[in-house]
Amino acid sequence: MSPRIALAVARRVLRQLQRDPRTIALVLVVPPVLLTLLKYAFDQDPSAFQQVGGPLVGLFPFITMFLVTSITMLRERTSGTLERLMSMPLAKLDLLFGYAIAFAALATVQAAIATAVAFGLLDLHVAGSTVVVGLLAVGNAVLGMSLGLFVSAFARTEFQAVQFMPAFVFPQLLLCGLFVPRDQMAPALEAISYALPLTYAFDALQRVTVDGSLGTAGIVDVVVTIGVTLAALALGAVTLRRRTA
Amino acid sequence: MAAGSAISVAGLRVRRGGKPVLHDLSFEVPRGRITGLLGPSGCGKSTLMRAIVGVQIVEAGRVDVLGEPAGSPPLRRLVSYVTQAPSVYGDLSVRENLEFFARVLGEPAHRVEEVIETVSLGEHVDQPVGNLSGGQRSRVSLGTALLGEPQLLVLDEPTVGLDPVLRRELWETFAKIAAGGATLLVSSHVMDEADHCDELLLMRDGRLLAIETPVSLRERTGKQGLEEAFLALIEEAGAA
After folding, report:
1. Residue B87 is nearest to which of A20, A79, A243, comparing CB atoms?
2. Is the entire prediction scored with pTM above 0.80?
């Protein structure tokens, strides 16, 4: 493990993002635009926007980072640069932490803009601290990133990587409690929801936005989310092979 | 293993996609020399190089590099590998690519400038690698392998698609690196290039036809052109 190498990787990934201003613009602009759409879609029912707006601010970074990371890592695999890095004195975790640092930085900007627009311009109110919502958003971005890194190992083309989004992310969004409270789902689905990481991410956000603070249960959610993030990073490291057929 | 060998291969067998690609190879590559790995496309040159670098899963046999098993952690600093397809970041400039790999290796910034000079990319340093020609891109890839002062350079077809002047310059660079004590293993499917090498490994269909110097190859086959000498070897192997 070497912080020097992790930072070199982070710098390089940020530099690559910098070369792609359109992606940065999409990452930063799309969440506030969607929140604005949501607000006016619920024009006759402002309470609905108040209810889902807060958690959504915290979930957008998860979705974007999942997608951006799985494609960036897939490119690293297909361009041969991953094989080159694997033949160099570099620990697999240096590479993964480098990615984590870079995307967490991007997610911080993304979350800051989304929270500023939602709470400043769109008149969204949450019971708890907007800063905690922002911090959870960054944590969820890192969760999305680590899952994206892991699943990128199973995609051979960018088409496949993009399809992992509806395959991995949508079911989690449907079952996390955002659309329907989990206790109102078919019992089998409720049981499944306990196995999905986004359920815990959403639960923590809901506790802050509705109850006003994380509380013990919310802290358990955060611990589970961090655990899943680390587990996905470890599994991601396993998929980085120094020797291939 | 013979004393002083840079690479020592014994009974190496590799399968890819269920088919045998390398059949029971055994040979030694001397240190501080340029060894050419020659043979037609598809004969297993790249697979052999991958096995030497330690990124190839092998079926059987032993590959030692600089006295350590191929791919072992101490070798990651000593062995540099350039794949046939340039493995660099197309969206970054020449300098940014080299700076990144230099940081990973912990090399000082002035090494980047030296390498840019060596691979003659001074005019293109700030251009994205993706906008460069194929030959320029492969020089960026080669440049990254020169960072970190490796003791063994494994170069897979580094001169393909380069103009003759540049090709000669690169071979001069290789000779300089070898004179500095490093070992080079350079593959090519063009027999003309064999004359730049001290030692030749001639391959066909996953088997080693010969390992000898260009001079002795000419003497033994009685052919002046190395291409013809190679053909003579194939006939000889077929007759045996």
Report:
1. A79
2. yes
